[in-house]
Design a protein that fits this description.
The protein is an alpha+beta fold. Helix content is 26%, strand content 24%. The protein is built from 5 helices and 7 strands; from the N terminus they run H-H-E-H-E-E-E-H-E-E-H-E. It has helices at 6-9, 16-19, 53-68, 126-141, 156-161; strands spanning 44-47, 80-86, 92-104, 107-117, 146-149, 151-152, 176-177. The strands form 2 sheets. Strands 1-2-3-4-5 form a 5-stranded mixed β-sheet. The protein has a two-stranded antiparallel sheet with strand order 6-7. The longest helix is centred in the middle third of the chain and has 16 residues, at 53-68.
């Protein structure tokens, strides 16, 4: 309740990248948890480039391994994607969102195909930032009045907290909510 220093978290099992973001005792700044804790890393989002292909492939494989317990079930490299990057970690890609734009009943729709954030960077706003950017920037740029996603049932609360609602669709996959 009084705040925390990096030294207080050392050797306690915390990810070293996380500990590096916490002020040290030598620094007079102190994190106070009396209000909402400042958990977000400084980060920015951009469209992926061909230079990101190997990292996107790694993230795609990790996503599929986590979700399906196998890799290469789906191919994401041909899809458009966004990446989230943090200057704290040498511009390392923390996560990606793959999307498609298509026409549904006469209206363009932005469909979030997949979202994956490296486990060590979850709970710090990277996934939320990617989805919000897709909704606020990409959907607006493509003039898409609707943004959709298929989500595993156990992860629907993430999307509901961002304002999505569950609907019935012929694109619904067993075990997933649309």
């Amino acid at each position: 309740r009084e705040g925390v220093f990096a030294e207080d978290l050392t050797d306690k099992g915390y990810d070293p990248k996380f500990v590096a973001t916490i002020p040290s005792k030598n620094n007079t700044e102190r994190l106070s948890f009396k209000k909402d804790p400042p958990l977000k890393y400084p980060m920015h989002i951009r469209d992926s480039t061909s230079e990101d292909e190997s990292v996107l492939e790694e993230l795609s494989d990790a996503f599929q391994l986590e979700l399906y317990n196998q890799t290469r079930k789906e191919h994401f490299l041909e899809l458009d994607s966004l990446v989230v990057i943090s200057p704290l970690f040498n511009e390392e890609i923390l996560g990606a969102l793959w999307y498609q734009v298509f026409n549904d009943k006469g209206k363009d729709e932005l469909y979030i195909r997949s979202l994956f954030v490296r486990p060590e960077f979850r709970q710090f706003g990277a996934g939320k930032s990617l989805v919000e950017f897709a909704c606020e920037e990409k959907a607006v740029n493509f003039v898409c009045p609707k943004v959709t996603v298929n989500s595993p049932d156990h992860r629907t609360s993430f999307y509901r907290n961002l304002g999505f609602r569950q609907v019935r669709s012929d694109r619904e996959i067993e075990g997933n909510a649309y």
